Each structure stands twice: as C-alpha cells, then as structure tokens.
Amino acid sequence: MTAPRMLAFALVCLGAALPAGATAATGSPPEVPYFAEAVARGELPGVGERLPLTPRRLAFDDGRASGRYGGQLRLLMAKANDTRQMVVYGYSRLVVYDRNLAIVPDVLERYTVEEGRRFTLYLRAGHRWSDGAPFTSEDFRYFWEDMANNAEISTFGVPAWLLVDGHAPTVEFPDATTVRYTWAVPNPYFLPGLAGARPNYIYYPAHYLEQFHPAHTAPEVLARRVAEAKARNWVALHTRRSHLYKFNNPELPTLQPWYNTTQAPAERFLFRRNPYFHRVDPEGRQLPYVDEVLMSLASSSLIPAKTGAGESDLQARYLRLDNYTFLKAGERQNDYSVRLWRTAKGSQIALFPNLNAEDPVWRKLIRDVRFRRALSLAVDRHEINQVVYFGLVIESNNTVLPQSPLFREKYQQRWARFDPDAANRLLDEIGLTARDGRNVRLLPDGRPMELIVQTAGESTEETDVLELIHDSWLKIGVKLYSKPSQREVFRNRVFAGDAVMSVWSGLSNALPTAEMSPAELAPTAQDQYQWPKWGQFYETGSNAGEAPDLREAQRLLDLNRTWQRATSTAEREDAWHEMLDIHAEQVYSIGLVCGVQQPVVVSNRLRNVPESGIYNWDPGAFFGLYQPDTFWFD
Amino acid sequence: MLRYLFQRTLMMIPTLLVISALVFVIIQLPPGDYLESYIAELQSQGESVDKEKIEFLRRTYGLDKPLHEQYLYWLLGMLQGDFGYSFEYDLPVSEVVGDRLYLTILVSTVTILFTWMIAFPIGIYSATHQYSWGDYGLTLLGFIGLATPNFLLALVMLYLANVWFGTSIGGLMDPDYIDQPWSVDKVLSVLEHLWIPVLVIGTSGTAGMIRRLRANLLDELQKQYVTTGRAKGLPPFKLLTKYPLRMAMNFFIADIGSILPSVISGAEITAVVLSLPTTGPMLLGALQSQDMYLAGSFLMFLATLTVVGVLLSDIALAMLDPRIRLQGARP
User: Fold this and answer.
1) ipTM for the complex?
2) How close A64 gets to chain B, by Cα (Å)?
3) From the list B50, B90, B273, which residue is nearest A240 (CB)?
4) What's the pLDDT at A36?
5) Model confidence band, residue A453 (pLDDT cutoffs 50, 70, 90)
6) Residues of chain A neighbouring B31 (CB-CB closer than 8 A)
7) What is the distance between the alpha carbons of residues A420 and A376, in angstroms, rounded to a whole number?
8) What does the pLDDT look like over A190-217, one tens digit per residue?
9) Using CB atoms within 10 A of its CB, is residue A6 exposed (0-12), middle (13-18) or buried (19+)?
10) In contact, A471 and A478? CB cutoff 8 Å
C-alpha cells in the first residue's frame, strides 16, 4: 500500500466510525423493516451507520407524501439486457437533473466549478457501496489510473468523452472524499455527461475489480480466473465484470437504490433494496420505500396485453399510444390507472432531405432553401394529428418543446402552416414549372419529380403518415414514394447519399436548457440524416466525409464552438437561439408533430407517481427524473 | 447391415460440413454484423455509442478477422465441444441454451403425444368408414386446424384463457413459480399453461397425420389378405390392428427423423407469440441481432439431430420391414 492510499484508507475508517456517534446525537432514523432481522442478528450495521454522514435529504415540496416501507414492484421487460433499465430508473448519479432540469448534486455532497474548467467533487463521508465497502476517491483513482490510463483496457487512450480538443484532464485526489478534474479550457460536457441517463462513469468499485486487474492481482491467480470464466484475456474478463450500467453482474457493487441479484440468463430478475443507499425522505428515513423490484421478461409484443391484465405495477416501456384504449378498458378490473405523459422528441417523425445526396440534380434542388420550405408548407400537420394521433399531439417543426426555457413560438411555427399555394409559388419561383401528364412537376433534367423517401420499415405509423403526406404533396406536383428497408441498409443508404430523403424521429432531446449541448443542431455526427457526410467529416476529425460547404451549416458549427467555449449562461443561450433560428428558417428537417403521449400504467396502490410528466431518455432517464425510490405502496 | 451402417455414418461427416458452411454463410448474409445491429438498437432508444468501444468489442469478438478465419475458428471450437460465445448474452452459448432446452423438450413431447392421440383414432376411423359423414366431418375439423394460422389461434386462446380462467398471459407457468424449485403447485401451474401451446401447435400437425394414416391404411384395406382374414372370421378390430395397420405404419417410422429436431427447436413463431421460455424465440432473437455463434451453433445442433434422426428412422425401417432393401437393385 502506497502512502497516499494508506492515508485514504485511514480517512475512510475515520469516516466510517463517525456516523454512529453523529446520529446518536440527533436521534437515529428508524430501522428499515426489511433489514430489521439482519440488523438484530448483527449481520448488518444499523441504519444510522449505513447512511452517509450527510445523506441526501429529499424535500418533497412538489406534493409528494412520505410513504411506508415494503412491497414488491413488478415490471415487464423484453430482454435480459433490459436489466440496465433499473440503472436508468434508479437514477443515482454523481450529479442529477432535478425536475426543473437543473443539475444538482446527488451522490456528491457538493461540487464546485471554476472558470468552467476546474471541477472539484466532494463525496459524502461514510458513503458505502451496496456491499458495505466504503465509496471514496480511491474508486475514482482506480478508474483514472487503472482503467482510463491502462494501455490494455483503453487501447485508444483516455476515453473520448474526457477529452476537450484532444486534451486529457489533470486529475487529482487530494483526500478520501475529494476529486478534482481540471482541463485547460472549459468543458461544458462534463457535468451533463455525469448526469446522463447512461452516465459517463468516472468511478468503479476498486475493492471488487482489483481481483481482475494485473496491477493488483498475481499473474497466476488472474490467469486461473480468466480460464475459469472462459474469457479471452483479463481485459475481457475485467470488462465483463465491470458493467456498472448494464447491471448484469450480481456481484458488482452499485450505488443504485436497488441491486440486481439474478445472473442472466433468466426469465425473472429480482432487485433488492440497497442497504447503503444515500437518499432519505424529509423525515430522515432511508429510501427506497419499496423493498424489491421484480422484472419479468416477456416478448415485447405481449407486454401491452400482460400490462392490461394487471401484471405490472409501473409500465411505460413497450407501450405505445395505440395501446391506450385497450389499456384503458382493463383499468377498473385490474386496479390500475393509465396516465398520459409526454415524450420529448423534437418531432415524432421527421423528414430529412439529404443535403449530401449523390444525385446531382436532386442535391442542387435540396440545397435550395425554397424547395425545402415548399415541401414543409405542403404538409398538412393538422390532418396528420387528427388521423393518426387522435388530435392529441402538437403540430410543430422539429424543434424544442414548449416546456423548454429555449422555446419560441416562431421556431415551432415558421414554415409549418399548411399553405399549398405559397408552396406552389416557391416551386414556380425556382423554375420548376414544367409538368407531365399526371400534373407532376419535372426536374430540370426532365425526369418527373418522384421523391423517394427511405424508411427503416419498422413501424406502420411511418407509412400511415407518409401516405397522408403523399396526398398533400400531390397538390404541389411532387409525387412521394416510400421505400422501406432494413435498419442497417437504411442507414448505409443515407450515409452513402443514395437516399434523397429519409424518415426518422426528430431531435432526441427537445427539452434542453442552455447548459445542455446543442451539438445535435450542428453537423457533428454521421447519423444526422440531413447531412451525414458533413457529420462524418466532423466526427472523424476531417479524415472521412465532406466539409460543410453551405454558409449556414458552417455557421451552426461555429455556434456549437461558441457554446463550448462560453463561460456564461447568457452566451450559451445566445448560441442556442441563433442555432434554433437557423434551423427554423432553413428547414433542414421537416418536423411533423411532437409531444406524442406515452401511456404510463400505474397500479392504484402505488403512490407518489406524478399524474403527468415527461417520458424522456436524456435528460429524464424515463422514470428516473421522478425518483422511483420515493414511490411507495399503500 | 453393419457395412450399411458404417457407410451411412461416414456420409454424415461431409453432410454436416456442408451444412455448417451454409449455416455460417447464410447468417453472415444480411448486411452488417452483430455490433452494427447493437449500435442501431442502442441509438433507437436514444443512447449514444462510443466509437472506440465498438472498435474494442469488434477486436475482442474477432469480428475484424476475415470470414473464413471466423468460420474455421468456430468449426474447430465446435469439434472440441466449445460452441462459441454469445455476444448478446455475454455468456458461452452452452450456458445460454441451458434450461430452455428442457422446457422445449417438455412442450414438444407433450405436443407430439397429443397429435398422435388425436390423429390415430381419427385416421383409423376415417379409413375404415371412408366417405361416411364421420369421415368428412373429422377431416374437415383437421383441415380447419391446419388452415388456421397458429399465431392467431394462440392470441385468441391467450385472451380467452386470461378472461375466463384468469391464467397469466404467456409463459409456461405463473411468474411466481419461475425461480422456485419444482413442487406440486409448480407442476400444476405448468399444466395450466401448457395446454395452450400444445393445442395450438398440435392442431396444425394433426391434419397432416390424419390424411397420411388414412391414405396408407386405405391402400392396405383393399388388399386380398384383408378379405381373406375377414372371410376366415377374424374379429374386425384384431384384423385391423394385426395386419393392415402395421403395414400402414412405415410413414410413421420415417417421420421419426424429422420429429427429433422439432422436439428441440419447438414451434418458433407460436413460441414467440406465447412468450414461451423455449429455444425458438432465442434462436429467432439471435438471428435478428446476428448473434452469429449462438444462432450458428444452435442451427448446427438441429442439423446434427436431423441427420441422426434420418439415420435412425432408416435403420428402424430396414429392421421392421423386410421388404425394404439396403442397396438399390443390382442388374
């Protein structure tokens, strides 16, 4: 043991010894009945010693009620690797989004940020992993030194998400409860990354993983373990055992409210409450309220039926809006209620004109903003809303949702009204006046304007909507054909520019605050279907793809850069607004409707589940935003 | 006979080699590989993927190697009893299949027995009462069973069982029993769920069997030895079971070859609809996500069973029916 590690260890011991005395003074919180027996037998320390010195005390100022302990929450999932949903729902992170989408400390007691580039994280003294081992800066050191900087585990060097402009941070561990990350320039991605639904992990349980690491284990012992697990080498074994996010190793300690006890393959996964969880309710009682979570697997097509038969206490995954009436019918008989939450995609379905299309004639046309505006004006969003979505959704461009502080009405409505006359005028203005016998316009080279829209062929919802657009586009002399294929084929066609137009969902995060990255709005990734080659160019550091050659697209990249460099919220807000404005004006994607409802089935016995909410992946972590550890059974 | 056996067994080796190559190539035919479908799945849920991580996985799983090398690696592994590694489950293939195999065998065996129990009496009745109302009626019933799509029937029965008897939807037992050790209650729960898949899968097999038994039996019933037996005063039932029925059984023995693999594979589509914990949905999932070693090894296992099954039924036929010759007629 090196000197600093010895010191760290000593501090931890001190920290562990403290809470017993501290809570004795303030009055120890009541013991969790689930553990009462184990505590009485002396197998588990009392609740006062299990909690950190300063637990995270939740306020419940939003109408939630303090609950009672006990019960088993039943969930339905489709695949064994859905166990990771419990990490998502648990949503215990170093820092988390609160309901106003502000970042607040959770596992951390507090943190400080200096100049947007020096992050000091303060852990809770006496915080423990689910197996009772102390959670300290040693676990952060293990990640940084033994994983991120280990040439065999990280073959490409420090993970890309820790680099800013290609430079790694300096990381220090001043004492057992303090960790400091410092970059040379501001890193606005760091905290949102830690708060993600799938977070970036900068800590791993060192005490558990050391047995698989050659720096801490004798080679012959390690070789035996590798052989026993039938792994290819120690890296494969270490990786397999260390998936904090996947929740597939019951032995791996966690910080989530419930830990997995079942090894896959299995049909049912039982999660038990984490005895050392760090959150308490307003009365100081340790959370979670619910003792166990039982996740049963069923094929995804059967899940709506099983939910309707009352076999799940809390279900949204694998339910869709068109299951609503069926679910509603079983409400009374099976004692649950169906709530409608809103999804937070920029657009449920959006059309992406491919600015990198191979066909030169089409490409030229698609790069003409008047053409894109005309196509958008010729979509009857109201009709789509009424016919496909029961009139329940918001007709909108592919932009941020009204709940976002960045929302402006013009982003939602610009070029989004149904106006075939204006669209026709725009097309005439471009010079596309020649028509064939079917009244379909002709392209400049004489081909009829038959626009093939590629789809991944996965949902009938897409084809229904395209059918409606087909009819309204005929009014402006554009003939739409939809071409379904397989998802991989679809993606490759778009990437290669074979697809002139494609269909996919809109912005994946339409609930941004100025602090969240606007990268989705700039050509920064290959899977942005309106400019795959520009995105690839950015992603590969100019090694593949094409450089953006439209002024507005370059401007978006510059703005993304400005946002990244900004040191104040006001600057970031300005960058966001200009980017949203460019998108609304330039119609880089044709959004249709957003705010589609997500049915959420909740047992009538389950309390503290909000009546309405946002069902979103990131930010949101689905139920995670609403803290399922505070849900309880009446 | 021994020489024949030896030759047949030897022939199995090239057959299986060809099958293994075909299986491997066909699994690889769709564009992309496991990692690409994995990325697509993650992205469809809004998760992002680390390019480096994918590159690392590709190297760990050996997906960056040329196709023939991957094939040889898989083939040599199988010869040593190592069926490869399932990407999706992150486990050796043998461990993934595990329990599912027993439940599949259970469902399939009961289904086959059910098919026989229904098909035999009806087949015999139809043949002995040819063109009667009973013959027409029962045959019609069989055809309806054959013509109804299994998945539809499965869904309807699931719904009715849930509404009328309160049986939990899908699966082979109540969820409460899944991790429990076997007990009387658990067996009862399995029985409560078992009848749906058995009925659904069984109905489609029954019609075929009825028709084949009827046709074969009719051929024999018109032969002179039957007339002779009847003239000599043999009781009708004894006459039927002792002579023509035995002669009509050849097709049944030949069927054993195809029964063996179906016992293991289960009825895939029905199993998916009913969410049965059998091997069918697993195979389908593996093929969809291009989890190639899991899919490949399982298909190879089925192929081996088919080849062995055909061999067994050939041997049984040769032993049971002296009219069958081992070699083609020599001039």
Assistant:
1) 0.73
2) 29
3) B90
4) 93
5) very high
6) 486, 488-489, 492
7) 10
8) 999 999 998 999 999 999 999 999 999 9
9) exposed
10) no
DSSP letter, residue A285 = P
Rounded to the nearest angstrom, the minimum Cα separation between B37 and chain A is: 7
Q: Test B31 with A240 for CB contact under 8 angstroms.
A: no
Three-state DSSP state, A104: strand
Q: What residues in B contact A618, CB-CB < 8 Å?
A: 46
φ and ψ at residue A246, rounded to 5 degrees: -75, -25
What is the sign, positive or negative, of the torsion defined by CA atoms of A134, A137, A141, A143? positive
- pLDDT, one tens digit per residue, over B188-225 is 888 888 888 888 888 877 888 888 889 989 988 888 98
Eight-state DSSP code of residue A337? E
Count of C-beta atoms within a 10 Å radius of residue A357: 22
CA gap A284, A293 in Å, rounded = 23
Measure CA of the first residue to CA of the last residue in chain A; give whole Å: 50
pLDDT in tens, A139-185: 999 999 999 999 888 877 888 889 888 889 999 999 999 999 999 99
With an 8 Å Cβ cutoff, is A224 touching chain B? Answer: no
Q: How far apart are CA B45 and CA B30, in angstroms?
A: 22
A74/B289: higher pLDDT? A74
Q: What are A482's strand-pairing partners?
A: A453
* DSSP-based three-state secondary structure for A313: coil
Crossing angle (nearest 10°) for helices A420-430 and A369-377? 160
Which residues of chain B make contact with A517, given a CB cutoff of 8 A? none
Cα distance between residue B65 and residue B67, in whole Å: 6
**Is B169's CB within 8 Å of A306's CB?**
yes
In sequence order, the 6+-apart residues with CB closer than 8 A to the CB of A4 are: A173
**Cβ atoms A532, A352 nearer than 8 A:** no
Residue with the two structure tokens 């075939």: A420
The Cα A597–Cα A392 span in angstroms is 8
Q: How far is Cα A234 from Cα A214, in angstroms, rounded to an integer? A: 8
Tell me A164's DSSP state. B
Buried b (16+ CB within 10 A) or exposed e, B3-32: eeeeeeeeeeeeebeebbeebbeebbeeeb
**Spatial distance between the Cα atoms of B81 and B300, rounded to a whole number of angstroms:** 12
Taking residues B318-327, what's their average pLDDT? 73
Nearest by Cα to A520 from B46, B92, B85: B46
Distance from CA of B88 to the nearest CA of A (A): 8
- Which letter does DSSP use for residue A61 in this model? T
A to B CB pairs, distance under 8 Å: 103
A292-297 and A72-77 strand pairing:
parallel
Q: What is this structure's pTM?
A: 0.81
The answer to whether the beta carbons of residues A312 and A338 sit under 8 Å apart is no
Could you give the count of Cα atoms lying within 13 Å of A593 in the half-sphere of its Cβ?
25
Other beta carbons less than 10 A from residue A70's beta carbon: 14
CA triple A615-A620-A626, angle to 5 deg: 80
Residue type, B193: H
Cβ atoms within 10 Å, residue A549:
10
- Across the interface, whether the CB atoms of B43 and A527 are under 8 A apart is answered yes
DSSP assignment of A379-419, as one string?
--HHHHHHHHSTT-SEE--SS--TTSTT--HHHHHTT-S--
Distance CA B70, CA A344 (A): 43
Query: Angle of helix B93-128 relative to helix B292-320, nearest 10 degrees?
Result: 40
Give residue for tokens 């409505």: A413
A260 in Cβ contact with A250 (< 8 Å): yes
Percentage of residues in chain A having pLDDT higher than 90? 57
Contact at 8 Å (CB) between B111 and B198?
yes
Residue with tokens 């389908």: B284
CB spacing of B273 vs A301 below 8 angstroms: yes
Q: Of A240, A296, A299, which has the smallest distance from its Cβ to B272's Cβ?
A: A299
- pLDDT for the residue A53: 93
